[in-house]
Each structure stands twice: as C-alpha cells, then as structure tokens.
Write a structure and sequence with these properties.
Length: 186
C-alpha cells in the first residue's frame, strides 16, 4: 500500500432514492498510488477476478504495466486489504479516460465506487480536463447518477489483432505493387 494518504471515508449517506444500505466505512482509506508492491499486485489481480467479469484474465505483470502508464491511480484500502481500484489516462487539459472502476463484492453498494470516481476526477491532472470518457457494459445508471452523460457520437475501436495497412514513416519512399496503376495529375 503506497502513495499519499487522502482521507478516511465517512459513513456513506443513503443513495438518492434512500434504498442503499448504509455501511460503516469509517476505516476505509483512499490513496493516490503510483506504484504497487508485489503483494499489492497480487491483491489487485484477486480484486479483478472477484469483481470484474471483463478482466478475469489479467495478469500481475500486465497490471503492473497498466498502473505504470496510468495517472492518476486511486486505491481504497480497509486496513491492509485492497477493496477498490480505479485509474485514468489523460493529457491533463483536453481529454481523459477512466478505466477499471472496481470495488470488492462485499463492499459494493455503500458509495465506495462513487468515491473512487470522485477522487479520480478531482485529482489536479484531471480536474481541469475538458472531457472525461469511460466505457461500461452494464453500469450506465451508476455513472449517470455521478454526472456522466451518454455520448451519441460514434465510438470506434481498433483491436490489436486487426489487419491494418501501416503507412510508411515520414521521409520513406513508398513502393507500389506491380499491378497497381498510379495516376499522376499534372
């Protein structure tokens, strides 16, 4: 458990409709984290396996790389137990993307996910960003209650296994296949 201590979480208030169970979370600590120990990475992978259907195959090594290339990263701890995690990438001015908002199943429903997201977007690297994006499969309602809106623009994805034609580097000549006719305007 590394990073600067932010604040203990106070007992969450009931959800907007009064239906959420209030749990005592007074010992939960939220932290901005920039690196994980080997033991912390083990806990992180276990957290994903327990609470993130979309990340069951993530490895300790891959998560170390993801954390190293994310800023900020927010963790939630109950003593020595990692119970929450979220990370973002951003240029600090125009765009940011939130990734991997995860809360341990036995801590869900008490406002900790909301607090993870609020802590993430209030970080100085995120707080002035023009637009913050995120992707979710089933939690649209949760994010709408925090203030996110659906984006009606087209979303495109490039999968790493997609066949794409690479453009030549600047300054390199292009060799055309023999059966390609090139028309030069002139």
């Amino acid at each position: 458990m590394q990073g600067s201590l932010l604040h203990p979480l106070l007992t969450p208030s009931p959800d907007w409709d009064g239906s959420r169970v209030v749990m005592d979370c007074s010992k939960i600590q939220f932290q901005y984290t920039d690196s994980f120990s080997s033991t912390d990475l083990d806990q992180l992978v276990d957290l994903f396996r327990a609470a993130a259907f979309w990340a069951q195959d993530r490895t300790k090594e891959d998560m170390a790389i993801a954390v190293a290339h994310s800023y900020p990263v927010v963790t939630a701890w109950d003593g020595d137990r990692l119970i929450g995690f979220s990370r973002a990438t951003s240029d600090g001015v125009f765009r940011a993307t939130i990734w991997d908002v995860v809360i341990a199943p036995d801590y869900q429903g008490g406002g900790l996910g909301r607090r993870l997201v609020e802590t993430l977007v209030s970080h100085p690297h995120m707080s002035r960003v023009e637009r913050t994006y995120l992707m979710t499969t089933h939690q649209q309602g949760f994010y709408k209650r925090i203030g996110f809106e659906e984006n009606v623009s087209t979303t495109l994805v490039l999968y790493n296994n997609a066949e794409i034609e690479m453009l030549p580097a600047l300054g390199q000549s292009v060799e055309l296949a023999a059966d390609v006719a090139v028309e030069v305007a002139g």
